[in-house]
Amino acid sequence: MLAGAAAIFGLVCALLLLAFRRRGADQPVSATAWIVGGGLLFPIATLSALLGYGLIVGEQLLPRADSATLRVGAEARRWQWTFTQPGTAGPIRTRDVLHVPAGRPIDVELTTRDVIHAFWVPRLAGKMDAIPGRPNVLRIEAHRPGVYHGLCAEFCGAGHARHGFRVVAHDAAGWARFQAGEAP
Amino acid sequence: MKALRLHRAFEAIWGTPAGWRGSLATVNHSTLGVRLMVTAFVFFLIGGVLAMLIRAQLATPGSAFVGPEIYNQLFTMHGSIMMFLFAIPMFEGFAIYMLPKMLGARDLAFPRMTAYGWWCYLFGGSMLLVSMLLGIAPDAGWFLYTPLSSKPYSPGINSDFWLLGITFVEISAIVTAVDIIVSILKLRAPGMSLDRMPLFAWYMLVTAAMMLIGFPPLILGSILLELERAFGWPFFEAARGGDSLLWQHLFWLFGHPEVYIIFLPAAGAVSTIIPVMARTPILGYGWIVAAILALGFLSFGLWVHHMFTVGIPHLALAFFSAASTLVAVPTGVQIFAWLGTLWAGRPQMHLPMLYLIGFLVTFVLGGLTGVMVAMVPFDWQAHDTAFITAHLHYVLVGGFVFPMLAAAYYWLSHFTGRRYSYTLGKAAFWLIFIGFHLTFFLMHLTGLLGQPRRIDTYPEGVGWTLYNLLSSVGAFVMATGIALFIIDVLLQLFHAPRAPRNPWRAGTLEWAMMQPPPSYNIASLPQVHDREPLETAPDLALSLARGEGYLALPRNGWRETLAVDTKSGRIDHIVVLPGNSLLPLGTALVTGSFFLLVLLKLYPWTLLPLAGLVVLGWRWAWVLGDKHAHGELPIGRGDHAPIHAEVRDSPGWWGSVFLSIADGSLFAALIFGHAYLWTVAPNWPPPALVTASLPVVIAGLLGAALAARRSSGVTVTGAGLGLLLTALLLTAFRLAPSPTSHAYGAVVAVLLAYAALHAALALVICCFARARRRAGYIAAINGAEPRIARLWTDYAVAAGAIALACTHLPALLS
Amino acid sequence: MTALLRAAAGLIIWAIVFASLYALQGLACALGWDKWQIAEASLARLVLLAVYTSGIGVLALLCWRYRPRVSRRQFLDRLAFAGAAAGLFSLIYTGLPVVAASICR
Ligand code: HEM
Ligand SMILES: [Cu+2]
Ligand SMILES: [Cu+2]
């Protein structure tokens, strides 16, 4: 997409430049060629291709039912996150740190206690808003164990810039320990 | 000399008396256009200072320059000022100044409305400034999302300032849009058929129409949110059946078209300037008209792309993603028409052209990032990051500020009558251009690196530090460029030598007059034969000044201009425009006191200004017109025409039609809100519906039917409206559940109030029409007034019937 | 004024059909139509497809009525055809997702 955009931008700049160089060349210019070719056919062709691709990727990113997925909860409030993970002895609640197993798709159920916030871990997935009265589900996946930084992307008032959290992705052993309730 | 004699005579009729009284009462479009532009520019500078403060804060990580409370006010006010108090009024002022001159008319169709619009803008904008000076400015972002902006999370008066101030300014935008649209459709030079209209007029026609449809949803949203904040009517509160997403829909239903509303006038200026710079007619006039028409419609189908992350089903996202990519096509048509024009001609590197190149380069980049964020998966990453900040400034600064700077240099000699100097403006350009790209190109990168927008601070060591510092440096370079631009313009205002007439040898009619233009624009109206009248008749200005066109004889002290048939440009009638008056100022003051009283929560007192508005509105319409008929009057060149008071489709009629369209858009948005809450809001169904009552419905519909009958007299119509009003009020006060209990009750209350208000308004208008007829005014007997009364009666009948159906039917059916 | 309305007619129809598609999508999900299977597709998709194709039909008809002819060489006639064609293409393009995209998720 980036390369395509750069190419199109280069094309427009080149045409612009040439228009000034060309000064004086007196062949008539055809409106249809410029407008139908450059203004209609060219964008329609590129945009259709891009749109089709975008929609297919979009479909693939949707949270579909899948036996391997794990469901966790994320409740936002000003300015804190409360996460709920399944443990061996019932749900485990944590503050500002979300624990997940690596290599497994996770469905994060997003809710809010007050205003709209958005859950965003740039390296794991896109973002999704937490909206009063409308639980949303975001599919994320950490391919490798590690710590990932997350933040609130929707402006939520004075503490917005500091409304971050961490996601800890465990390997299988670490996850088992976490689920058993041993502090990691 | 004949020209001088005519000048004196017309100046006596059209001029503004010296002194403060004259300044307060003037309705002249040139004066008001310049006032609007100057005011908007001042707001641009204020918004720019805020931007500098924002960049100062973000220059370094962990900055303690201002705290989050102040920072939130800074960016909220920056965004709101730039969008509502700079961009829109700026192009409105430009159109107000320029349109009549380009169309070969002497003023706009509703001069007093023009003045009222400026006053409303000034007062509403001042309200926001006051809030800023008091340190209680709005701080919930320029799109003021609920519930952050609702009472529990914004208990202060900050958000009220936004809701009321912006609504006040929107009123000015609506009346200006009606003014512009009717002027373009009716007030043109004879012979200027639609296909001979300058492209700028086409652009403004589409823009004004978009404003009529696009602004009412925001006005409605603001009313609803203010009702929620003031009285606890829970439109947006999920716990009581409201939905914060309803606000987002209403806001973006306005907000996206808004971006095109800002872009189109600037593109109109581009389409006007480019062919002159290239010394050739524009390539593909018809294609451009079709493209802007398409753009006008398509841009209403994109609003959900601002809501890709709220959790909407993929099909809905796909619709809006598709539409968002599709708008690039008509934009592409225009860009290639411009490139082709440059290609076809011999472009000259004058200063306006330099700024236009800045525009093309910047805007194309903004458009390309726009297509990127139209892709749903990409937007899931980029949304609400600095990438978006970068994109929106590429589009807004690239698509509006650069063309406007080009326009400023292109038309400056029209305002001042002086020639421009080249060097300083060139230096200003390079500073602005380089500063801009330094500031905002880097924001793409920080955005992709994960920097969100609207943060007052960020940690060190995440890789954003250097980019942010450079970005801030760029902003100050750009500010220096703007300062240089101001100095350059001031120098020209006071020092430059006098310019020859039509210095660019352009073809459009605004150059067929003295520069700076006299109050009446042209001593006589031309007959137009093609798109560029000055191309074929370079001496047109002189011949018009000598009175060789239409309406060259001052008569009765009237301000006369011609109205034409919309399509063909055939002469239709003479419009006698109202003269200077203090009514616009008075009405704006009373309107302002209404908003002020609401702001101060003195609700019972608001009845006073409301009554005042009825009285002033009555007077507004009453002072026009004559009690005896004039018949066909000579207009010069052997032609005759009646005056507007004696024809059925006068500008007043068309003004009512377009105002009712804006009103209808507000009503449609309200119905949409009702249906939306009903189908998708959480916590429905409501605890109780309206207690349906067949007698009330039947009485109301009977009243509606009586009022709608064409043959009935004023008494019967009035009785019908009264009956309808009673049914609506009975439903509201006796049968409907409390507006505070559930969003259902709240929305029903607003629906009924809207219909009742229109029934009452129609009653007043019917009384007015009757009083005018009794008093013997020609316009009330042979003219458009009965027709206008009919229009508003029919509107009230339709609104009342729909409101009754929406409130009673669900209960009757269940 | 009617000349201008004709020029906008195709795009007005696009706006109406586009808004209906979006509204129907919301309604269909609220009423659970996506769960009623009829043959291969859900009721929701069938309804949407029906609106989509009939919208295309109407716009195609409009294009035909406004088609360029020798007697209609005037600017506004051509503009009316351009508007209708733009409406038709816009509907085909913006409505195409009804064929495959997930309706309620
Ligand atoms: C004079 C040069 C300008 C500079 C340096 C500038 C800078 C900025 C910056 C840094 C932000 C981001 C604030 C944040 O995310 O925390 C911003 C936001 C914004 N700017 Fe500008 N800006 C400029 C001109 C404009 C113009 C001309 C317009 C519109 C016509 C505009 C409209 C906006 C809007 C709508 C926002 C979003 C505000 C919000 O998030 O609520 N800006 N600007
Ligand atoms: Cu937050
Ligand atoms: Cu948008």
TrEMBL record, chain A:
Kindly give the InterPro entries that the UniProt entry links to this protein: CcO_II, CcO_II-like_C, Cupredoxin
List locations, semicolon-separated. Membrane
- The Cytochrome oxidase subunit II copper A binding domain covers which part of the protein? 67-181
Q: Which GO terms describe its biological process?
A: ATP synthesis coupled electron transport
**Taxonomic superkingdom:** Bacteria
Under the heading Pfam families, the entry gives: COX2
Keywords (alphabetical) are:
Membrane, Transmembrane, Transmembrane helix
Give GO terms: molecular function aspect only.
copper ion binding; cytochrome-c oxidase activity
> What GO cellular component term, any one, is given?
membrane
Reactions this protein catalyses: 4 Fe(II)-[cytochrome c] + O2 + 8 H(+)(in) = 4 Fe(III)-[cytochrome c] + 2 H2O + 4 H(+)(out)
User: Membrane-spanning residues where?
Assistant: 34-56
Q: Which family does it belong to?
A: Belongs to the cytochrome c oxidase subunit 2 family.
Name used for this protein in its record: Cytochrome C oxidase subunit II
TrEMBL record, chain B:
Its EC number(s): 7.1.1.9
User: What keywords were assigned to this record?
Assistant: Cell membrane, Copper, Electron transport, Heme, Iron, Membrane, Metal-binding, Respiratory chain, Translocase, Transmembrane, Transmembrane helix, Transport
The Cytochrome oxidase subunit I profile domain is annotated at: 8-529
Give the signal peptide, or none. none
Gene of origin? ctaD
Q: Which Pfam families match?
A: COX1
A GO term for molecular function: cytochrome-c oxidase activity
Q: Which CDD domains match?
A: Ubiquinol_Oxidase_I
The record's listing under InterPro entries reads: Cyt_c_oxase-like_su1_dom (IPR023616), Cyt_c_oxase-like_su1_sf (IPR036927), Cyt_C_Oxase_1 (IPR000883), Cyt_c_Oxase_su1_BS (IPR023615), Cyt_c_oxidase_su1_bac (IPR014241), Cyt_c_oxidase_su3-like_sf (IPR035973)
CC annotations in GO: plasma membrane
Any one Gene Ontology biological process term? respiratory electron transport chain
Q: In which pathway does it act?
A: Energy metabolism; oxidative phosphorylation
Q: Which family does it belong to?
A: Belongs to the heme-copper respiratory oxidase family.
Taxonomic source organism: Sphingopyxis bauzanensis
User: For this protein, what reaction is catalysed?
Assistant: 4 Fe(II)-[cytochrome c] + O2 + 8 H(+)(in) = 4 Fe(III)-[cytochrome c] + 2 H2O + 4 H(+)(out)
Q: Please give the start and end residues of each transmembrane region.
A: 32-54, 74-97, 118-141, 161-187, 199-225, 259-278, 285-304, 316-341, 353-378, 390-412, 424-446, 466-491, 574-596, 602-621, 653-676, 688-707, 714-736, 742-771
Membrane-topology descriptor: Multi-pass membrane protein
Protein's cellular compartments = Cell membrane
The name on file for this protein is cytochrome-c oxidase
Domain of life where this protein originates: Bacteria
Automatic annotation (TrEMBL), chain C:
Q: Which UniProt keywords apply?
A: Membrane, Transmembrane, Transmembrane helix
Q: Which residue ranges run through the membrane?
A: 46-67, 79-103
Q: What is this protein called?
A: Uncharacterized protein
Q: Which organism is it from?
A: Sphingopyxis bauzanensis
* InterPro entries reported in the protein's UniProt record: TAT_signal, TAT_signal_bac_arc
Domain of life where this protein originates? Bacteria
